[in-house]
């Protein structure tokens, strides 16, 4: 007989499960069980105090694992119910469409591929991952399978809070996802559109086999008076939705960040290469001839950084040189001022002497003139 139920309590050796027929049963405790998870189990999984063989436990565990994966991953539409301890549902659309149910700690409890393409970008490894790591894995798989390229780089993310009392925030979740994509995704730039869904939309979207994200686009389009059906929205890639302006999405561009460890690795590699070439071209004790340029292989590697101590010394020396240049400029200005002052003083002295000579000349001329007038007067009298 096959049972379906939800884990409500964990003990040392067993788990208490509330079945779909509202019965409480104890099942053998196995790895991966946690409170709130829906499971499928068989008669052999029911906990008994009597000893069982290792072979029986192994067969039961294998069957349990296969059925558990089948329920939570490979067969998503076997139930549209949300897991008991699900705090939020995160939807990712590219053309592959996937939904992830997460708990309060933002860990993936359930993976639901919405379409055939979605099945290609997910695996059971996503279960238990942090939400940002899981979305990164999905988007990275989409890139590997060429669903996401430099030209077709649109991703739609939607968050929906499903628990009555939850401290999670949709914008905080998508912010965490965006940061992870910028840091780790192996693509130069992607565009992200974000929608916040409502709890009642989850069942409506799943009933029509469409992601919550695309269902949100459909609602926005209908509110704007656009004529589009559920089937049409299913077939559209997210890039096409953006290009056609369906739902008038707000888009944010994410650009890949250069990691410090990547830069350091490049610097180390360039430094090693530079030192190696230097030794090969200039053995110890031999220097390059004066006036000769560096050989092509001896050019400084791009991006090679100087040691902090060397940079500090050079900066200090440069500052000292700058101060010296400033002092020299001040001394030159002072010398020029003094020279100008001396010339001005000399000019003034010359002018004074010239004026004195002119005055003396005038006096001489005046005396001679008077003598001449006297002589003329005397001559006239005679």
Helix and strand topology:
Blueprint: E1 2-10, E2 14-19, E3 24-28, E4 38-42, H1 54-74, E5 88-93, E6 97-102, E7 108-113, H2 116-120, H3 131-144, E8 154-161, H4 170-184, E9 189-196, H5 199-207, H6 212-223, H7 230-235, H8 238-244, E10 251-255, H9 260-281, H10 308-381
Parallel strand pairs: 8-9
Antiparallel strand pairs: 1-2, 1-4, 2-3, 5-6, 5-8, 6-7, 9-10
Helix pairs in contact: 3-4
Beta content comes to 15-25%
- Coarse morphology: rod-shaped
Strand count, sense and barrel status of the largest sheet are:
6 strands, mixed
Termini separation: 173 Å
What proportion of the residues is helical, as a percent range? 40-55%
Which blocks of ≥5 consecutive residues have pLDDT under 50?
A: 50-55, 70-79, 287-304
Please count the beta strands (DSSP E, at least 2 residues each).
10
Could you tell me the radius of gyration in angstroms? 44 Å
Broad structural category: alpha+beta
H/E element string? EEEEHEEEHHEHEHHHHEHH
Lateral arrangement of strands in the main beta sheet: 7-6-5-8-9-10
* Count of individual helical segments: 10
Mean of pLDDT:
76
């Amino acid at each position: 007989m096959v049972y379906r139920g939800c884990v409500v309590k964990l003990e040392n050796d067993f788990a208490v499960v509330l079945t779909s027929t509202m019965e409480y049963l104890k099942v053998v405790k196995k790895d991966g069980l946690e409170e709130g998870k829906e499971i499928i189990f068989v008669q052999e999984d029911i906990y008994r105090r009597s000893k069982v063989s290792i072979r029986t436990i192994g067969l039961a565990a294998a069957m349990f694992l296969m059925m558990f994966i089948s329920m939570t991953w490979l067969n998503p539409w076997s139930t549209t119910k949300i897991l008991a301890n699900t705090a939020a549902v995160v939807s990712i659309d590219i053309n592959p469409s996937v939904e992830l149910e997460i708990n309060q700690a933002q860990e993936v409890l359930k993976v639901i591929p919405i379409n055939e393409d979605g099945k290609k970008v997910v695996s059971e490894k996503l279960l238990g991952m942090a939400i940002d790591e899981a979305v990164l894995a999905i988007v990275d798989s989409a890139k590997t399978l060429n669903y996401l390229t430099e030209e077709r780089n649109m991703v739609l993310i939607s968050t929906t809070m499903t628990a009555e009392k939850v401290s999670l925030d949709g914008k905080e979740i998508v912010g965490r996802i965006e940061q992870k994509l910028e840091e780790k995704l192996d693509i130069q730039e992607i565009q992200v559109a974000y929608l916040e869904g409502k709890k009642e939309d989850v069942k409506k979207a799943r009933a029509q086999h469409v992601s919550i994200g695309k269902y949100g686009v459909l609602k926005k389009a209908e509110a704007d008076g656009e004529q589009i059906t559920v089937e049409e929205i299913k077939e559209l890639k997210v890039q096409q939705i953006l290009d056609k302006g369906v739902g008038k999405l707000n888009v944010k561009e994410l650009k890949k960040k250069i990691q410090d460890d990547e830069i350091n690795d490049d610097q180390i590699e360039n430094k090693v290469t530079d030192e190696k070439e230097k030794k090969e071209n200039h053995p110890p004790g031999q220097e390059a001839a004066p006036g000769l340029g560096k050989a092509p292989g001896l050019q400084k590697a791009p991006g090679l950084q100087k040691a902090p101590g060397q940079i500090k010394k050079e900066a200090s020396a440069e500052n000292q040189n700058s101060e010296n240049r400033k002092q020299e400029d001040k001394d030159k200005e002072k010398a020029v001022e003094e020279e100008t002052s001396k010339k001005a003083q000399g000019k003034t002295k010359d002018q004074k002497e010239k004026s004195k000579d002119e005055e003396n000349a005038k006096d001489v001329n005046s005396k001679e003139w008077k003598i001449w007038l006297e002589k003329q007067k005397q001559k006239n009298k005679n």
